[in-house]
Design a protein that fits this description.
It is built from 13 helices and 2 strands. It is mainly α and 291 residues long. It has a single domain, classed as MetI-like fold. It has a two-stranded antiparallel ribbon with strand order 1-2. Helix 2 packs across helix 13, helix 3 packs across helix 12 and helix 8 crosses helix 10. The protein is globular and about 75 Å long. The protein starts with a helix and ends with a helix.
Length: 291
């Protein structure tokens, strides 16, 4: 038995070796370089010869008000967009389930926003909502005599949230549609025989069964919202006074515009560490729920 177990372990090790080598080559080496740059004085001229300087870059990042402002924007944006996308996706999955059961081809049309690159979506809405040349502000001004500045400091956050939700709600909807359809009809029939109405079945039977999928979808969309870059950068950039500067935009501008490579890499390491701690905490909570 012992030799068989050893043979099985050796076989798994051989099968896992290519994956481990791939991760070391394509993730381990860049991560090591980033760690070195984050504790070094480095410019574009000294990329090959960075000078170690301790944790000054981390101290500069943690003392930078722009970093905390970007972190606050990213967390707020990720939380709000994840809630809206999961709420709308869940509603559509339940509401459209009878229709999609008969006309499943309609799912293709609902998935179209996912086929467009976020940067192109941002560019499209930038043209549509532009204060001077955008058709929507123009017609609002013609019909109502007033038009809000959709990309101005007062409306920018709500506009960005709406654009993000319009593009990524279909992703949450697809997950919930599959989870809702996977619920056994026998479970629904048993609940109906016990006198449960449609709302009671949804609340006490279907939603609890879909809860793991809801949690996964929320987490994925929250992480994606926190690290948002392309559509925000195209629509508003950092915004007036950095009002729409996300962590990804902060890192990008620190690296390419300000040339503060060490500080930019240190900020990315801080973001990675925070994401890792969040994943670890969620994993611990999940394990406790299982036990």
């Amino acid at each position: 038995m012992t030799s068989a177990m050893r043979g099985g372990t050796f076989g798994w090790s051989v099968l896992m070796a290519p994956l481990v080598l791939f991760l070391l080559a394509f993730l381990g080496f860049p991560a090591l370089v980033n760690l070195v740059y984050s504790v070094s004085e480095v410019t574009f001229q000294t990329l090959r010869e960075p000078k170690l300087s301790g944790f000054g870059n981390y101290a500069a990042v943690l003392r930078d008000g722009a970093f905390w402002s970007a972190a606050g924007f990213s967390l707020r944006f990720g939380l709000v967009t994840a809630l809206i996308e999961c709420g709308l996706g869940l509603f559509l999955a339940v509401f459209l389930a009878p229709l999609l059961a008969r006309r499943s081809v309609l799912i293709t049309g609902l998935m179209l926003p996912l086929m467009v690159a976020p940067a192109l979506v941002g560019l499209m809405y930038r043209l549509v909502l532009h204060e001077f040349v955008g058709p929507l502000p123009y017609y609002l001004l013609e019909w109502t005599g007033d038009s809000p500045a959709f990309l101005g400091p007062d409306m920018a956050f709500r506009t960005l949230v709406a654009v993000e939700a319009l593009q990524w709600t279909p992703f949450a909807f697809l997950l919930f549609h599959v989870a809702y359809g996977a619920i056994s009809q026998d479970v629904r029939d048993a609940a109906a025989m016990d006198g449960a109405g449609a709302w009671q079945r949804l609340r006490f039977v279907e939603l609890p069964l879909m809860l793991p999928t809801v949690a996964v979808a929320f987490f994925i969309r929250f992480i994606d919202g926190v690290r948002v870059f392309d559509n925000v950068y195209v629509l508003t950039g950092s915004g007036a006074g950095g009002s729409t500067q996300s962590l990804s935009i902060y890192i990008y501008e620190s690296f390419f515009r300000q040339g503060a490579i060490g500080r930019a890499v240190a900020a990315s390491v801080v973001l990675f560490a925070a994401s890792f701690l969040l994943l670890y905490a969620l994993n611990r909570v999940s394990l406790r729920r299982r036990t």
